Amino acid sequence: MTPSLTQMTTATAVNDIELSRPATVKIESEFKEDPVHWLGENNAKLNELLLKRGAVLLKGFDPLTPEKFESFIEAASGELLLYKNRSTPRSVVQGRVYTSTEYPPDQVIPLHNENAYTHEWPQRLYFTCLMASETGGETPLADSRRVLSLLPVDLVEKFERLGVMYVRTFTPGLGLTWQETFQMTDRIQVQKYCQKHGIQVQWLSGGRLQIKQVLQAVLKHPVTKERVWFNQAHLFHVSALEKEVRQEIGRTIPEDELPRNAFLGNGEAISEPDLQAIRESYATVEYAEPWREGDILVVDNILFAHGRRPYSGPRRVIVGMT
């Protein structure tokens, strides 16, 4: 066992802010070429540390091939998940390892818990850096427990009672198609999938699909039993779009047919003060550090939200989910 990992799991003089940041584990040189070998000696402690801290950054491995990365994930957590009910563009790199979200490099991806807008989500996320960008490109993290604790009590009570309604309208040329989202090409297949998972379906003119689903705003971790803020209301809400983009879309698309939007679970609009409070809570606890090639970041998707900062120069970060 590496001394740094033992030290991290037995440390006692750690304040609350440090506990809500990812733990950093430096890999001994003897393991730098073989992360699966390292895992064989340290997986139990990694699991323990992940439950306590919510995210663990492993530093010191040689850059991994996608094949080695997939093997590492399988050794740590078993079979990888398919990326289903998608909301962002990604490409397959190897098996069930994907590119991280393929958004333009000048744009911010807000902090979020993966797939919190769906009925099912991954428990863990694994990221590794194959190529670090020249500037920026960090994957910021935010402790979902602290985000919840910083929100006004009345806001939390309202969202917890009503939930969040996600509305998505699939219009050709605007974001993902419904075929890409559901990885299906048949309308009946999609309708059966949605019916099974409590998703309301409406077919609009031109073969366009609109779906609505009400889901939780607050979640309890299945193991630690801690309550966390777990939704994507602030990301799906139309206000997350840049003003110019929102104006351009508004010229041709009715507001009730936007590519995506979020409401309270009863259909009421989410107020601007509530959205501001949510975004401020994320900003207050956000933490990030630069990627280095070979880094592996393991995230408990319930305990921590993640995002992406803008960057310049080539960047290649890949992800697997379990």
Verbal overview:
There is one protein chain. By secondary structure, the chain is of the alpha+beta class. It contains eleven helices and 18 strands. A seven-stranded mixed sheet has the order 1-2-15-6-18-4-3. A four-stranded antiparallel sheet has the order 10-11-9-14. Helix 5 (144-150) crosses helix 11. The longest helix has 19 residues, at 35-53. The chain starts with a helix and ends with a strand.
What keyword list fits this structure?
single chain; 322 residues; alpha+beta; Double-stranded beta-helix; seven-stranded mixed sheet; four-stranded antiparallel sheet; 11 helices; globular
**Helix percentage:** 25-40%
Name of the CATH architecture of one domain: 4-Layer Sandwich
Low-confidence stretches: 6-14
The class by helix and strand makeup works out as: alpha+beta
**Mind telling me the C-alpha Rg?**
20 Å
Shape: globular
Please describe the biggest sheet, giving its number of strands, its sense, and whether it closes into a barrel. Answer: 7 strands, mixed
CATH superfamily of one domain: Clavaminate synthase-like
Report the total helices.
11
- C-alpha termini separation: 24 Å
- The CATH class of one domain turns out to be Alpha Beta
Q: Proportion of β residues?
A: 15-25%
> Which fold name fills CATH's third level, the topology of one domain?
Double-stranded beta-helix
Quick check: average pLDDT?
Answer: 90
